[in-house]
């Protein structure tokens, strides 16, 4: 009893000291602000599109967006080509982003298959409608009774941005980088296409305004307005909490072969939760054979993708001198930490020092 009383006393003292030193963390269930169309658009950087050079203008950068066909397997040649591409094609200071979007917008594929059987015999038309309904339900509810299996549309995007004074030299440099990316991806059978404004707005609209419909957004691009203002709907509301974001959006119906007003009659208010995760520790070794694990595990329910998933990898290309300086400094700091007697009980510190020693 005495030890428990002392422990509670120490906890109260530490809590009081913490409130004097730092702001008190709000409870998990307390919202920390709401975002509407105007406020959320301010956080998006894309502004204009140059239809002559097919590039985008942001706050202080200029870049392009490519959509790739997902790779269904890879070999050593594929890995070598990708390594050379990201190592040699990007100039120092260039920002590159690789996006993997697994969303429920499977309507284009499913509806095209179902509409092709609309004029067939009655039995085939009914079978097509039932199959289409099965896929529609499987986009948001498990298609299996024993495990969470959902249908997803996987899309891959690559963006490259350059900083500096926007002149003809910078634009020509960006176009040369884009041509190298398109040519390199074509050699590994991952064909790349330039993403135009209407397609980009449609993709961002589906991400920022999630709805329970399998039909992707089909917006109309207005060149007289900022692109960032066209991707957030006026009836979408974001509420930010400490560990999640709650999104309330209005989605129209997704009936097969229906008009716009018929789908509007089936409109409903949808609510989604968005949670963000970051990598705590990278694996010591990684090959192309492990890439399927990014899509989820086939047997572990805890590692399966239940909802829509957006995976992003962002990196900045550096010069050889900058890379060498950063690597040497990190090696020295990790060696210093590993040599401390107090850190011998932490294997992660020793592994980090070994990793930086190998890189340096």
Q: What distinguishing features does this structure have?
A:
single chain; 360 residues; alpha+beta; four-stranded antiparallel sheet; 10 helices
Provide a compact summary of the structure.
This protein is an alpha+beta fold and 360 residues long.
Distance between the termini: 55 Å
Please report the total strand number as a whole number: 11
**Sheet with most strands:** 7 strands, antiparallel
What overall geometry do the principal axes of the alpha carbons give? globular
The overall pLDDT, averaged over residues, is 82
Strand content: 15-25%
Rg, nearest Å: 25 Å
Level of helix content? 25-40%
Model regions low in confidence, pLDDT < 50 over at least 5 residues:
none
Order of helices and strands: HEHEEEHEHHEHEHEEHEEHH
What's the tally of helices?
Answer: 10
SS-based class: alpha+beta
Write the layout of secondary structure elements.
Blueprint: H1 2-21, E1 34-35, H2 37-41, E2 48-50, E3 55-57, E4 61-68, H3 76-88, E5 95-103, H4 107-115, H5 122-138, E6 153-163, H6 168-187, E7 192-194, H7 197-208, E8 237-240, E9 245-251, H8 260-265, E10 268-274, E11 309-316, H9 320-338, H10 347-359
Antiparallel strand pairs: 1-8, 2-3, 3-4, 4-6, 4-7, 5-6, 5-11, 8-9, 9-10
Helix pairs in contact: 4-5, 9-10
Structure description:
The protein is an alpha+beta fold. It has a domain at 320-360. It is 37% helix and 18% strand. It is built from ten helices and eleven strands. It has helices at residues 2-21, 37-41, 76-88, 107-115, 122-138, 168-187, 197-208, 260-265, 320-338, 347-359; strands spanning 34-35, 48-50, 55-57, 61-68, 95-103, 153-163, 192-194, 237-240, 245-251, 268-274, 309-316. The strands form two sheets. Strands 2, 3, 4, 5, 6, 7 and 11 form a seven-stranded antiparallel β-sheet that branches. It is globular. The mean pLDDT is 82.
């Amino acid at each position: 009893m005495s030890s428990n009383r002392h422990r509670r006393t120490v906890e109260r003292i530490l809590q009081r000291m913490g409130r004097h030193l730092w702001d008190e963390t709000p409870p998990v269930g307390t919202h920390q602000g709401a975002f509407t169309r105007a406020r959320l658009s301010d956080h998006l950087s894309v502004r204009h599109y140059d239809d002559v050079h097919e590039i985008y203008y942001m706050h202080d950068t200029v870049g392009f967006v490519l959509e790739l066909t997902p790779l269904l397997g890879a070999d050593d040649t594929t890995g070598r080509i990708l390594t050379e591409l990201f190592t040699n094609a990007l100039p120092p200071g260039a920002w590159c982003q690789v996006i993997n979007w697994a969303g429920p917008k499977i309507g284009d594929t499913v509806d095209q298959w179902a509409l092709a059987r609309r004029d067939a015999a009655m039995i085939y038309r009914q079978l097509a409608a039932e199959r289409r309904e099965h896929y529609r339900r499987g986009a948001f509810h498990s298609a299996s009774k024993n495990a969470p299996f959902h249908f997803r549309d996987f899309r891959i995007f690559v963006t490259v941005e350059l900083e500096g004074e926007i002149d003809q030299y910078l634009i020509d440099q960006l176009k040369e980088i884009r041509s190298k990316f398109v040519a390199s991806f074509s050699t590994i059978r991952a064909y790349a296409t330039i993403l135009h404004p209407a397609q980009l707005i449609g993709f961002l609209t589906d991400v920022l305004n999630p709805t329970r419909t399998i039909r992707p957004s089909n917006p109309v691009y207005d060149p007289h307005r900022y692109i960032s203002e066209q991707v957030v709907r006026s009836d979408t509301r974001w509420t930010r909490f400490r560990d999640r974001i709650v999104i309330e959006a209005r989605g129209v119906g997704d009936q097969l072969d229906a008009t716009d007003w018929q789908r509007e009659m089936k409109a409903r208010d949808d609510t989604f939760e968005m949670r963000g995760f970051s990598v705590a520790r990278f694996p010591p070794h990684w090959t192309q054979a492990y890439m399927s694990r990014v899509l989820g595990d086939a047997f572990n329910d805890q590692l399966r993708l239940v909802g829509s998933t957006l995976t992003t990898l962002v990196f900045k290309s550096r010069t050889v001198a900058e890379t060498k300086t950063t690597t040497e400094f990190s090696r020295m700091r990790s060696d210093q930490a590993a040599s401390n007697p107090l850190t011998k009980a932490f294997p992660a510190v020793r592994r980090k020092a070994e990793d930086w020693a190998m890189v340096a």
